[in-house]
Input
Amino acid sequence: MPYSLYKKIIAPAIGKTLVLTPLFAHKIEAGFPSPADDYIEGRLSLDEHLIQHRDATFFVRAKGNSMVGAGIYDGDLLVVDRSLTPSSGDIVIAVLDAELTVKRLIKRDGMVILKPENPDFKEIVLKDGQELQVWGVVTSTTKKFI
Output
């Protein structure tokens, strides 16, 4: 993989300034609306909430619809931790045949499978001789609505 492509995709989580935003104790109903409490439970830093290993974390945007069943949609910002050892069932950023993809990693009966979370897409079953590189485990995603 050319370094220039690697450099464009990966943006390390750097910087030491934390932004602490109010975290209200009241939970918001997703159904019928109810008045919110004015009680602040504490302060929340999205850095601390989303990033466990600062020096090993990067962000990448999802492209396509192969992972909608996992709640990952086109344009979502994925938080990826390179320090985590990928386990079967984890959603990973992988390089297969020089192509980047986000899929669920499945290890079963000696096989390695990259599983999409959309029935319109086929599983990728690794064949002998294919090399899979896992760049990191997707730990969360963020969405913008406006």
User: Anything to note?
Assistant: The chain is about 10% helix and 40% strand. The longest strand covers residues 132-142. Residues 1-11 have pLDDT under 50 and may be disordered. Helices lie at 3-9, 46-50.
